[in-house]
């Protein structure tokens, strides 16, 4: 059996693909009032080498930029970022398997396979070169892609607030935990808390990001999350399949040794538990640029979605 992606039909305009229009709850100058105002947003699909149908969101013209969402996230959550970037780039957001509009399956639910999916996606699009931006788990997928295939075809890299190691080993010093970004001492308890809402305290799992998610302190963020709720049907059991593998990985060796010769930008915030690890990453990657957003700038784990205007300005300045 061939391991090459299978060609698929042309993308559809988002309103047609979703079978509905959507009115955003908050009117924001410079952003669409409804989905149909974003008339060049497309949704497409392709089939991976192991037979999984993945969805992607696309808009704009120009140099290609691939955005990778975090765990449980999808292209709908990046609706405003896509809208603002489309005048400058041909932008794609790939929904990982079991997330967004992509197929729910039991196989291949590990970061290494997600990295293969990403490479097959670029091959499907015929991209010899592209810029890549990974948020949260999406950054880990980029690190796995670099580990497996090297930096070939990756013009510039952007990592948004992802700890190199979510699991904090019992024999680490506090300094090592901070540099690695460790946020749980029990991956099983973390998975149960994140997917089933089971109780857990902060000494077992750092719940700061979940608390910040619940703070609808940005109109753009509330628009994006409301849109996701209207068009995406998440299955907690499907989302749980990759989370254990994601949390168990330690990417510090890739960051120390394998990201060289490519421009890198890192985004984090004063209200992110991962900030010390992002500073450590900047020190390890030659020439890396670190953007740290203040609390007033929505500087937490969701900074790109909560503050899409500033994020897209800073991102485009780096890419330019």
From TrEMBL:
InterPro entries referenced in this protein's UniProt entry, alphabetically: AB_hydrolase_1, AB_hydrolase_fold, AB_hydrolase_sf
Domain AB hydrolase-1 per the UniProt entry, residue ranges: 64-195
Pfam families in the record: Abhydrolase_1 (PF00561)
SUPFAM superfamilies registered for this protein in UniProt: alpha/beta-Hydrolases
PANTHER family: MONOACYLGLYCEROL LIPASE (PTHR43798)
Protein name (database record): AB hydrolase-1 domain-containing protein
Species assigned in the record: Sphaerotilus natans subsp. natans DSM 6575
